Amino acid sequence: VQLKESGGGSVQAGGSLRLSCATSGITIRRACMAWFHQPPGKGREGVAFIGQTDKTDYSDSDKGRFTISKDNAKDTLYLDMTSLKPEDTGMYYCAAGICDRYTDPRSGVWGQGTQVTVSS
User: 89-101 pLDDT, tens per residue?
Assistant: First the structure.
């Protein structure tokens, strides 16, 4: 299984970005997937989750601003981020095998991450 994130970059506060996670070795429509955020100098935090039945869950701070989705035909995971804030700055990682906020992150398969920088 391999995951590769893309779409990160530098934006001003209030802007939007779409992150992509291209996968290989898995059938994404049957997989639990997640996006995690790692702020500078801090640990990874789950921001969005999508289960095998496409049920979604979000961290309280991101609910309403972020949308996680799958393109089953392309085996690609997305994270649409709007109303970005400086505190959204950091690395964003996609992970396979993590169904919700209660799943042990150590059980997942991780990508290399993509950097997002939000300036005020």
Answer: 999 999 999 998 8
